[in-house]
Amino acid sequence: MSYSVILPEQGMFDAWREAARIAISHRIPPGELDWAGMGGLFSAAPLPDAPGPHHARVPPSFMKLAMSVIWHSAPERLALLYRALWQIDRREGDPLSPADPLGRRLNLMAKSVGRDIHKMHAFVRFRELPATGRRRFAAWFEPEHNTLEPGSRFFAKRFADMDWTITTPRLTARFEAGALGFLPGGTRPDLPEDASETLWATYFANIFNPARVKLDAMRSEMPKKYWKNLPETRLIPDMLKDAEERVARMREAAATAPRPGAAAVSTRYRAAMPVAPVLPETLGEARAAALHCRRCGLCETATQTVWGEGSATARLMMVGEQPGDREDLEGRPFVGPAGQLLRAVMAEARIDPAQVWLTNAVKHFKFAPRGKQRLHRNPARQEIEHCRRWLDLELALVRPQLVMALGASAAFALTGNDAPLGSRRGQTETGLHGRPVLITWHPAYIVRLPDRTRQAKARKDLMLDISSAAQAAGLGRE
Predict the structure, then answer these.
(1) Can you give the C-alpha Rg of the chain in angstroms?
(2) Which residues contact 12 (CB under 8 A, 6 or more apart)?
(3) From start to end of 329-435, where are the E strands?
(4) Are the C-beta atoms of 345 and 462 separated by less than 8 Å?
(5) Alpha-carbon distance 35 to 16, whole Å?
């Protein structure tokens, strides 16, 4: 007896999985299944409605392979996957191994599907449609396989703030108001000209390096079938014709020997640049030297060195971890959200920030870019140790009676002890410089606490510690 299976154009993998589960549960051999649903000389029966008594188990690697092969354009892909399922269930060979003839064929099909999805992500070119509220874009693409459905999830994440449509001969993906749907395919739509294409073509022509042209590699990574949909490819024939002449011009414009006397001019120029003293004697000289610090890699991405500020003869010094985003831009310590909290608590304790020396253990902002944001990252142990030179200079030049360590990084920089802060908060320890160090919370820790009760308690702890430090240093008295 033969069975006919007809699967939908959309959601094909889930439909195939359910049909295969029912067929294997009834022990239907691969030869008795017509996955194309075309029938033969005799009419074929549909699959049973419910699973049978047999339950097959497959490894996760089979499901991963099937989720890729299912989108291949070969009509026999469904039958091949079921044959592999049949062999796995009956323990006949290893249809997942590239050494097995069936496994090799399935793995090659999966790789071809993966390359097709990659090319879709690389070569789809949207054009903007007339605006009717949200911005709308459309594109035409001709994939080798049925890869629009799995490939469109990438565009839904990347272009979630606009509406777009990708039309292919078999299927159309439409993303509207944050929802992704699919419609039947069609012919190439009449898309409007895009003004940005001219700008992109100009940029592409100027970055084109004729000396690195490898035509075989270019055709392999960007087959000609996609060229007609890419605005930059219309420039390639003319650029290839001019490649040899452009290479010759590049050689002529290559670097030449410097003119006589250039070395002397360069030497005088470098000698005229300001040089920070090896051992600064004032806070101003120390700040000037820190502006040119290259002791670690943080200076490469930060906007500037953020030096301390306050009274040069302060009895109390407060040391935080490192500058934040706002401090990095303004060049002053404790001006961001955490700094505003610290200054508010100081005001409640009747402490004028101008009476205190405010600084950080690390003088450059360490961050991780995330879109338009710069997210704070804790400095590494080595970075704190590299920056200890500048903190030691501040301690030696200001000579405070008491130092407050705001947070774990500052506590380590001042004491060399990296033990957890919870049991140390509110305690006074002897610093590496020989002076007392009062350990307390960093205001940024308080700002980030999600629980308001805990936040209020930590703020009260900071208030008590600042009041205690001020009293010990003889500040804030009326």
Answers:
(1) 34
(2) 70, 71, 146, 149
(3) 356-360, 367-370, 373-376, 402-406, 428-430
(4) yes
(5) 9
Residue 417, token pair as written in the block: 């002890």
- Domain limits of the chain? 3-117, 124-184, 199-252, 293-473
The DSSP output letter for 103 is H
Q: What are the structure tokens assigned to 74, written together?
A: 């070969």
Asked if CATH classification 3.30.70.141 holds for the domain at 293-473, the reply, yes or no, is: no
Q: Using one digit for the tens of pLDDT, what is the confidence trace for 195-244? A: 566 666 676 666 666 655 666 666 666 666 666 667 666 666 777 777 77
* Mean pLDDT split into 10-residue runs, the chain, 478 residues: 83 91 92 73 70 87 94 93 93 90 95 93 86 80 93 90 91 92 88 67 67 63 68 69 73 73 78 70 91 87 94 96 94 95 94 95 93 89 93 95 96 94 94 94 94 94 95 75
Distance of alpha carbon 292 from alpha carbon 303, whole angstroms: 12
What's the angle, vertex CA 331, arms to CA 325 and CA 332, rounded to 5? 90
Length of the chain: 478
Say if CB 368 and CB 377 are below 8 A apart.
yes
Q: What is the largest CA-CA distance in the chain?
A: 106
